[in-house]
Amino acid sequence: MDSKYPAMFDLTDQLAVVTGARRGIGLAMAAALANAGADVIGVSATLEPAGSQVEAAVRAAGREFEGFAADFSDRSAVAAFAAEVTGRDRHIDILVNNAGTIRRTPAADHSDEDFDYVQAVNLRAPFVLAREIGRTMIARGRGKVIFTASLLSFQGGITVPGYAAAKSGIAGLTRALANEWAAHGVNVNAIAPGYIATDNTQALQDDPARSNAILSRIPAGRWGRADDLGGAVVFLASAASDYVNGAILPVDGGWLAR
Fold first, then answer.
1. Range of the domain at 72
2. DSSP labels for 5-47?
């Protein structure tokens, strides 16, 4: 295990499933978990069967990696992936429900198709995976479920009504599952990233007015980096958070405090 993680953060020989692992926040989370000792199953819609960045990051930490491609807007693909990973002898200790998508259109023009697609990927699929994998955790009396929420779990945003609805739903789902599962030794929590420089926020980064307005509100004075989420995900995946239930942890440079 990397020496920067003391014993209570040690994930040695645990198995983590990380969705949306191909790039950005998911890649950074998978790498952080591997550096804390976990083996990783990564899944994304277009994850390469071999040679991906996330595989390289996990193997560089000396841990095992297995990759899957699954379209989270497809009910059958989500069900098939859940059946595959829960039907094995080795149990899953950590589920990081990170996969997500965004469609930017003013609310008056936001189509049913865009709204439904965002709900499917950002809310329905995470619930199905949490239910199926969480059931196995309940049976064992231990496990960690971590959702990626958003600043829009607290706020409404602009031109992203489907995304705001889904991420508000993730906040509610985090609390609902925590209420039911905490007594069974399963911790359910969420991380709410702030404005992180990833593909999902590229349109905002490229808009000088929006980018400057965002930066002016962040006390830390910078956009976040994907690896800023590493410490939070290791904390919520580890024994250090055994009495943390139903929390939504902002990692936002102070945005919500402003």
1. 7-250
2. S-GGG--TT-EEEEES-SSHHHHHHHHHHHHTT-EEEEEETT-
d(CA 251, CA 180): 26
Whether 2 is covered by a domain: the verdict is no
Q: What is the pLDDT of residues 22-55, one digit of tens each?
A: 999 999 999 999 999 999 999 999 999 899 999 9
Catalytic residue among 5, 163, 195, 243: 163
Query: Residue 109: is its pLDDT beyond 80?
Result: yes
Residue holding tokens 């405090």?
A: 257
Give me the number of domains the chain comprises. Answer: 1
70-78, long-range: CB < 8 A, 24+ apart: 70/43, 70/44, 70/45, 71/45, 72/19, 72/45, 72/99, 72/120, 72/121, 72/125, 73/117, 73/120, 73/121, 73/125, 75/120, 75/124, 75/128, 78/124, 78/125, 78/128, 78/129
CATH number of the domain within which 44 lies: 3.40.50.720
Nearest residue to 19 via CA among 163, 137, 142, 126? 126
The answer to whether residue 17 is domain-embedded is yes
105 inside domain:
yes
Instruction: Determine the residue type at 94.
Output: I
Where does the pLDDT of residue 211 fall: very low under 50, low under 70, confident under 90, or very high at 90 and above?
confident
pTM: 0.94
Residue 237 lies in a domain: yes
Q: Does residue 117 carry a catalytic annotation? A: no
Residue 146, pLDDT > 70, answer: yes
According to DSSP, residue 92 is labeled: P
List of E strands, 87-154: 94-97, 143-148
State both tokens at 242: 């055994």
